[in-house]
Specification:
mainly alpha; 147 residues
Length: 147
């Protein structure tokens, strides 16, 4: 009986230590980053990002009755650089030719738009943006902005 328990404990400990870390986030090739930066520019995605975060902050500020000072602190935490890698990740596996076609398409349809721009999105990007905005609202980025 003791041998069975010992064997069971050894097998369980081997299984526990055999767990692997999750794989790192996919990142696009450097040449694709250039195209993704251009896509951000032609769609004004960074502007959309800031407007979306502001909408979430204003809603939370009203519901939770934030002071103007606290609201300003949270608004000052909006920074696209904390979200940019997520944007890259969403499009990391796309071919360069597909990204170029997307850039060309959005550049063409947005060239005459002054009040708004058509943006690129999908469910992964939308969910990530919503989650990021919620983190901003919860104050997770306050200490990062001070440093």
């Amino acid at each position: 009986m003791n041998k069975v328990l010992l064997l069971l404990m050894i097998l369980m400990s081997v299984k526990a230590y055999s767990q692997n870390d999750p794989p790192p986030a996919a990142l696009p090739a450097d040449e694709n980053k250039v195209l993704l930066d251009e896509l951000i520019k032609v769609t004004a995605y960074e502007v959309y990002f800031k407007q979306y975060c502001l909408m979430k902050i204003r809603k939370a500020a009203e519901e939770q009755k934030w002071t103007d000072e606290y609201k300003k602190i949270i608004i000052d935490c909006i920074d696209f650089k904390y979200f940019q890698s997520t944007f890259y990740n969403v499009f990391a596996l796309m071919e360069k030719s597909d990204l170029q076609r997307m850039v060309d398409f959005y550049r063409e349809i947005n060239k005459s738009k002054t009040n708004f721009k058509y943006i690129i999105t999908n469910s992964m990007l939308t969910n990530s943006l919503d989650g990021h905005a919620n983190y901003i609202v919860k104050g997770y980025y306050i200490s990062q902005k001070k440093g």
